Amino acid sequence: MGVSERTRIELPDHVPAEFEVYVNGVRQEPGRDYEVEGRSLVFPRPIAQEGRLGFWRWASMWLGIAGTYRKHETVDIVYEDGGRRHVETGLRPEPYPD
């Protein structure tokens, strides 16, 4: 069994049907960069998340011995509500069930 090549992100319930999607601050285009399936965004590629740091990794960073150089992508949703722009951050990507 391999790693899923696609990634799913659930939209919060309060996000309206019209929104913009950004990955690492770069605007994504629907149909090219992602698809909408119900209340989920489906990306045709993995969205990398660093995960939790272990004690020794955290300690080595605190001591200045090492840094964290793992790939970490963020997905943001921008939408308008009542004439104001809102941004949803910290959305958790999940492997798409194949």
In short:
The chain is mostly beta strands and 98 residues long. It has one helix at 55-62; strands at 7-10, 20-23, 26-28, 35-37, 40-43, 75-81, 84-88, 94-95.
Elements, N to C (H/E): EEEEEHEEE
Head-to-tail CA distance between termini: 11 Å
Number of strands: 8
The radius of gyration computed from the alpha-carbon positions, rounded to a whole number of angstroms, is 16 Å
What is the oligomer described by this structure?
A: single chain
Q: Can you tell me the residue ranges where pLDDT is under 50 for at least 5 consecutive residues?
A: none
Strand content: 25-35%
Helix content: under 10%
Characteristic terms for this protein:
98 residues, mainly beta, Immunoglobulin-like, four-stranded antiparallel sheet, 8% helix, globular
Walk me through what this model shows.
The structure is a single chain. The protein has 98 residues and is mostly beta strands. The protein has a single domain (7-93), classed as Immunoglobulin-like, CATH 2.60.40. 8% of the residues lie in helices and 33% in strands.
Summarize the helices and strands and which ones pair or pack.
Layout: E1 7-10, E2 20-23, E3 26-28, E4 35-37, E5 40-43, H1 55-62, E6 75-81, E7 84-88, E8 94-95
Antiparallel strand pairs: 1-5, 1-8, 2-3, 2-6, 4-5, 6-7
